[in-house]
# Entry
Amino acid sequence: MTFTAANGEDIAYLITGILFIIGLKYLSSPRTARMGNRISAAGMLLALVTTLLQGIVQWPVIVAGIGVGAAIGIYSARAVKMTAMPQMVAIFNGCGGGAAALVAMGELMKLLQASGGTIAPEEAITILLSAIIGGLSFAGSIIAFLKLQELMTGRPVTYAGQQVVNALVLIGILVCAGFVIAGVEPLKYFSIALVLTLVLGVLFVLPIGGADMPVVISLLNSFTGVAAAATGFVLANNVLIISGALVGASGTLLTLLMGKAMNRSVANVLFGAFGAVHKTAAAAKNGKAVEVRSLTPDDVAAMLAYANQVIIAPGYGMAVAQAQHSIRELETQLEKRGVEVKYAIHPVAGRMPGHMNVLLAEANVPYTALYDMDDINPEFSRTDVALVVGANDVTNPAAREDKNSPIYGMPILDVDKAQNVVVLKRSMASGFAGIDNPLFELPNTAMLFGDAKKSIDAVNTALKQL
# Structure
């Protein structure tokens, strides 16, 4: 075989695809995740250079674009706090979907200009898929970002006839797509379809509550991957097809795993409006407010100091308070006293998949101390103190015991089975699921109210004085 520029391009894209697959494999473990990122970044750099050397671009425009993008990326990586990582993931994911939609529109205009206003049905289908899926991902990711950033309510936003409205918008998109494929004023109906897609993306995420954000983020990520793959077909670019397919497949699998971790179907997540405020029977007894036992930092320090095993169950409250470094210091102090410390990680704790792992890794918590839910649950019955730091719904025993609870059947961390449970919480407000937690009323549970970081710092100070 004679080596040509085309062959070199194919080989480079093949190597890129292999690097992406290896990088994705390495991302499956916290131990190798950094290396996986580096390998994937090397693959992306190879793909970018190979594409630029094809001579199909205007260099000044591309260099300017790379400069702006690199500046935004570097600034974001350095300035955005780890606690804000979910919303950064959401907004960057939306940018990917929006880019796919814009490329599709540009390619449509190019084809229409070259052909005198007509377009082949097979070209129209790939362009529509790229634009519709990309636009849906873009608009949905923007709403997810606004919810995560608390620029709008994290509760589900619902109204009468919502599903009917969504169905009508979807029908409108399909009708416009049909006109484009049939060649009837393709640019006009493509534009209408794209606008309706953006509307549907907004309506799609509005009724989804904060408790379901890990599922939503992974689902929108898979949408962006599919849009990128469709864009690859539009541009006849193999590396886009490969990378988009990898992102789409991995995002879909992750979405299904997140749904399984919550014991809910993806359809229930998307259309169940889960997270509206509910009041359970535990919320009040005979019309009286629920009484809970409250401790001081000195009390908690003494309890922890004389324990044999402590399990820390982190949640989003830890992320908000940025308490991960204080918790790491607490772990160090306890281990010096001979106390065994483990971390219980629920798959959907936080606002994105792996959120707790990322925050604890930032605080240099050893990977060996992090335990998945299935591995750690049998340990709680042998644990002296379970320290719940800002976790609510993933520790709610109603998921096991109350068939009328919205979260009934969801696997939870069995913290209530520990000899003692200490819950760090700002107030008695409900979590993202919008329901009360009977864990707080149990006789072996005590509350340490206040900001999680300040509370842990106070416990650390008290420990040093024992």
In short: Residues 273-288 have pLDDT under 50 and may be disordered.
